Amino acid sequence: MAGLFYPGDPDALRTQVSGLLAEAQAPEKIRPKALIAPHAGYVYSGRTAAAAFATLRDGAQSILRVLLIGPAHYVRLRGIAAPTVDAYATPLGHVPVDLPALSAVADLEFVSRDDRPHAREHALEVELPFLQSVLASFQVMPLVVGEATPQEVAEVVRRLWGGPETLIVISSDLSHYHDYETARRMDAATAGAIERGEWRVLGPGQACGHLPVAGLLVETARRGLQAQRRALCNSGDTAGSHERVVGYGAWMFR
Length: 254
Prior knowledge:
Elements (H helix, E strand, L loop, with lengths): L9 H14 L10 E4 L4 H12 L11 E7 L8 E3 L4 E4 L2 E4 L2 H4 L8 E3 L2 H4 L2 H4 L2 H7 L4 E7 L4 H10 L6 E6 L4 E3 L1 H17 L13 H14 L3 E8 H4 L6 E9 L1
Parallel strand pairs: 1-8, 2-7, 2-8, 3-6
Antiparallel strand pairs: 1-11, 3-7, 4-5, 9-11, 10-11
């Protein structure tokens, strides 16, 4: 998606992401364990995504692995797909895939090794330049979720939770293609559900990544963590018309 969702030129990409992160206000001395961030083109959702990733500034040096989970947009998939490749590439460089860590979920019948769902999937890719700009050096554990249950996602999150060296990033946009005021009402209700941990009410109408989000909420509730809102808007607030908008939200768990 380089050149489409975000700049393909490394200098332009670095400048844009640095600018978005610089604009984002974040509390000091926090170390989030998990984030929810949007995955649209940066002109639409970049500020919202930056509001999530800016929270990593103080603890960036300690993060060595990122569990990155998003929905399958292009390939019909039963279960959850891990890649077989050893790296992802963006204009900012290569991000190694932590294949040994992914072996911890290889025995789950709903987890497969399949590069096809990853090949065209923007939901994971667009998060990487933000992570590359904030973290010193890290490996990624990328997973694409297709037809799965929140409990299955939660089991994967539980196994790959790790310690302070592991960050969890869930990639999801909110409502799609409603008028501005309808989207605002819908996304406000979805945000409230996320913040109350009400994963059962989330469906495809509320968020394209409803399954990854719900799975995270199942596991964070088990561990006593709650979502804290960082930003909420839609494309009508940034670079789009008010007739058909897409919603974006950012949350952290700590």
